[in-house]
Amino acid sequence: MRWNLAYRTLFHDRGKLIAGLVGVIFSVVLVNIQGGLFFGLVNKASMLVDRSNADIWIGHRGMHNVDFAHPIPERYRYTVAGVEGVAEVQPLKLQFVNMALPGGKYQQVLLVGVAESTNLGRAYSIVDGPQDAINRNDAIVLDRCDDDKLDSPQVGELREVNGRRVRVAGKSNGILNFLVTPYVFANYDDAIEIGGSNPLETSYLLVRLAPNADCQRVCRDIRTLLPELDVMTSDQYASLSINHWITRTGLGLSFGAATLLGLLVGLVMVGQTLYAMVLDRVGEYATLRAIGLDERELLSILAFQSALVASIGIAIGMGITIILKTLLSSPKATIEIPLMLYVGCGVLIFAICLFAAGLPYLRVRRIDPHTALQS
Amino acid sequence: MTTTNTGTTAYTTTDVPVGVQHGHGLASGQKTSAMTNHALEAKAIAKSYVIGGQSRPVLDGIDFHVDPGECVFLAGPSGSGKTTLLSILGLLLTSDSGQLLLKGRRVDGLTEVERTLVRRERIGFVFQRFQLINGLTAEDNVSIPLTMDGMPLREARDRAGALLCRMGLEDHRKALPTSMSPGQCQRVALARAVINEPELILADEPTAALDGKSGQAVMELLHQLTKEFASSTVVVTHDPRIYQYADRICEMENGKFK
Question: A16 and chain B: CB distance < 8 Å anywhere?
Answer without folding.
Answer: no
